Predict the structure.
Amino acid sequence: MVYLGCHLTSSKGYENMAKEAISINADTFQFFTRNPRGGKAKAIDENDVDKYIKLAEEHRFGKVVAHAPYTLNPCSKDAKTREFAYMAMTDDLKRMEYIPGNYYNFHPGSHVGQGIEAGIKMISDMLNDIINPEQTTVVLLETMAGKGSEVGSRFEELRAIIDKVNLKDKMGVCLDTCHVHDAGYDIVNNLDSVLKEFDDIIGLDYLKAVHINDSKNPCGAHKDRHDVIGAGYIGKDTFKNILTHPKLQGLPFVLETPQENLQGYGEEIKMLREMIL
Ligand code: FE
Ligand code: FE
Ligand code: ZN
C-alpha cells in the first residue's frame, strides 16, 4: 500500500488542500510553503490548521510534503541568497510544527562553480544551524537531475550531506523519479539495482517520500523536464514497478506532472490506482 497525491496550491489554506485532495481520491499531497520563487509566507490560521488536521485524520492521510521555494540555495555564492535560505527554512520549519510530524523537502542547492565539496559543506552547515532536536518535521533532501551545478544528483552527494548533519534522525531523502532518471539512474531497466545502490550508499531507511514524474528526456540527460505519467521516457510499466515495489510500501507518492488543473491530477491518480490494484 502506498499513499498517492499531487502538488496542490496552498494559497487557500490547509483545509482547502485537504478537501481538494479528498475530491480526487488522494491521501497525501505536496504544497509550497511560500511563493515558489521566494518571498514572504502567509500567516498561519490556527482554525484552518485544526480543520485540516481533523480531515487528514478522518481520511487517513499519509504524511504530507511541504516544498521549499526553488530559489532557496544554501550554497549560493551570494551572501544575500544564502541568508534568504537560512531565513526561509528557519521560518518554514517553525510553521511546519503547526502540522506536526510531516516532511519538509528542499533542493539541496547549486554550488555555482564553487565545487561539490564546498556546496556539501555549506548545505550541511545550514542544516546544523537550523534543525533543532525538538522539531517533529523531517527535512528531506530531494534527489536532483544534475542540471547546471546542482548538488544531489548522485546518491553519494546526499550521503555526504547527511554524514555531516548532527541530528540525523531529522533527515531524509525524497526520490524524484524524473530527476534520478535524468541523473543517469536506469530505473526503467534496473529498478532493483538502483534501489540497492540507494540502500548501499544512503540507506533505504532515509527514503521518506517519492515524487512521481515521467521525464521528457532520456536517462542521463540532466535536463529535469517533467512529463505526465506514461507520456515520457520512463513509461507506465516502470511506475507500476515502483508503486508496487515491496521496498517502497507505505511511502507518500506525489505527482508533480504538468497537469492543467486538479481534474487532470484526479484522472492521473485514478489511472495509477487502477494500475496497482
Ligand atoms: Fe522539487
Ligand atoms: Fe521533485
Ligand atoms: Zn524537477
Notes: The two ends are 10 Å apart (CA to CA). The first strand starts at residue 3 and ends at 8.
